[in-house]
Specification:
alpha/beta; Nucleotidyltransferase, domain 5; six-stranded mixed beta sheet; 20 strands; 38% helix; 21% strand; globular
Length: 457
């Protein structure tokens, strides 16, 4: 039995999972789960990265009885920490939902045109992409960048805490909108136009590369073995894509969680006028492949609405919300889930009502009506995105592999099948952790390649 330890950190929670492989089957055992709650202070929304590191240490200790031969970490994209010349973290990383990034896509054009930036990177424009976060930092906190010597994206930062080695993993680097999608390396042309130095960025390594080993200090402190730490697909979307159990080469997938990522896997990026106008993205995948997809605001709308109703005094389970949505009349109102008004945390139901009111639609007053609006809007967005995907690739997709936590939402799957007209194949739910484990197993020589990994999964 081969055991590897995977840390899978999402935008709302994280976990430590032991992946056990007996030569035929991968079994996942969750050994530690923890919340990932942002902290607002002084008008800025931060990630509590020191708490996350504490929880990772807890996971390392709790995994000891199982024994593990190596470690891998994946997280959400775009966010980063800055470090000084002595390797010290310069404050908590700022959350991508912080309001300082609103309007940064437009504001960045004084440095580089959006068309030129897309032509090199092939990345979908969102105000909180790393490039725009850095521009905002350069304009609003230049003294912070003056002190900074290195930028580490979230999984690379946690790998640094484990090993003392600073690197930039390819799939995560692709989320920055600073990577040349064709060369798979940092774009000198883009960086030369930016108000921050290219020296901040570490060398890029491919997923499956050994970053280093657990430091002697950490090993002694926690009583854990000095095992290898691998750069898996650090971006959780790329990690999940590894675990899509597709047998065919051309497949469509939907990674359904806080964000929905709908796309396919390609050998080379697709960057042209159509993909630019449709705001499609070319992110990095395992083995240098391209995750050609669209980022869609997904279950965030349900999660944050649920938090709002709790703040107002009523706590609903997800199952209760699904039942209320099912009981509400259909087809009364729709929103664009990707409207920027829905990105920040807060009163999502109130914003939905205002959106419907201002667009001349019936206003969803009760909880069930709001939920019905959310469900039908997300499913409708999936259907329109599939059509965009087919237009850009020139291919037709009959089957949609749905992976991630959204697999548990039967109503959303049913609506997705109805709106897309596709055969919806659910599972695995634990795709991100499985992809993390699979890349470690490939790196350790237990699996031959990604094709064998998908066959096992």
């Amino acid at each position: 039995m081969k055991n590897v330890l995977a840390f899978d950190l999402g935008a709302s929670s994280g976990r430590a999972v032991i992946g056990s492989f007996d030569g035929k089957k991968i079994t996942l055992t969750e050994v530690h789960r923890f919340k990932n709650d942002p902290v607002e202070l002084g008008g800025t929304l931060y990630w509590d990265v020191l708490r996350l590191w504490y929880e990772i240490c807890e996971g390392l200790v709790k995994a000891k009885p199982y024994g593990y031969d190596c470690i891998g970490i994946d997280t959400w994209g775009v966010d980063f920490g800055l470090f000084d010349r002595k390797g010290r973290l310069l404050g908590n990383p700022v959350h991508y939902r912080d309001r300082r990034y609103e309007g940064m896509v437009a504001a960045s054009e004084k440095y580089i045109s959006n068309d030129e930036l897309y032509g090199v990177t092939g990345i979908q424009f969102m105000d909180f992409n790393t490039v725009f976060q850095l521009i905002a930092t350069a304009e609003k906190e230049p003294e912070l960048l003056e002190r900074a010597d290195r930028l580490l994206l979230m999984p690379d930062m946690l790998n640094y805490f484990l090993t003392g080695e600073m690197t930039a993993e390819y799939t995560m680097a692709s989320t920055t909108q600073l990577l040349d999608a064709r060369t798979r390396r940092w774009s000198a042309d883009v960086l030369s136009k930016m108000p921050f130095g290219s020296s901040l960025l570490p060398d890029i390594i491919d997923p499956g590369t050994r970053v280093g080993t657990v430091t002697a200090e950490l090993s002694e402190l926690l009583g854990i073995p000095r095992v290898p730490v691998y750069a898996v697909c650090g971006h959780d979307t790329a990690s999940a894509m590894v675990a899509v159990p597709a047998k065919e080469k051309d497949f469509a997938f939907l990674s359904c969680g806080t964000w929905s990522l709908l796309g396919t896997e390609l050998d080379e990026p697709v960057i042209n006028a159509d993909t630019r106008s449709l705001n499609m993205t070319n992110e990095g995948g395992y083995g240098g492949c391209i995750s050609f997809l669209k980022n869609i605001i997904g279950l965030w709308l349900i999660q944050e609405s649920r938090r709002q109703w709790k703040r107002e005094g009523t706590e609903y389970s997800f199952a209760e919300l699904e039942k209320l949505a099912l009981a509400a009349p259909s087809g009364r109102c729709l929103i664009d889930p990707d409207d920027p008004v829905f990105v920040p945390q807060g009163d999502i139901p109130g914003r939905i009502r205002e959106y419907c009111r201002s667009s001349g639609q019936p206003v969803p007053e009760d909880v069930g009506a709001v939920m019905r609006c959310i469900y039908e809007s997300i499913a409708g967005k999936y259907a329109s995105t599939v059509k965009k995907l087919e237009k850009c690739t020139g291919k037709t997709y009959d089957t949609l592999h749905v992976i991630g936590g959204g697999v548990k939402d039967g109503l959303l799957l049913k609506m997705t099948a109805e709106t897309t007209g596709m055969n919806v194949v659910p599972g695995p739910t634990e795709a991100t952790a499985l992809g993390n484990v699979a890349v470690q197993l490939i790196a350790e020589g237990e699996l031959k390649d990604i094709a064998q990994a998908r066959s096992v999964i």
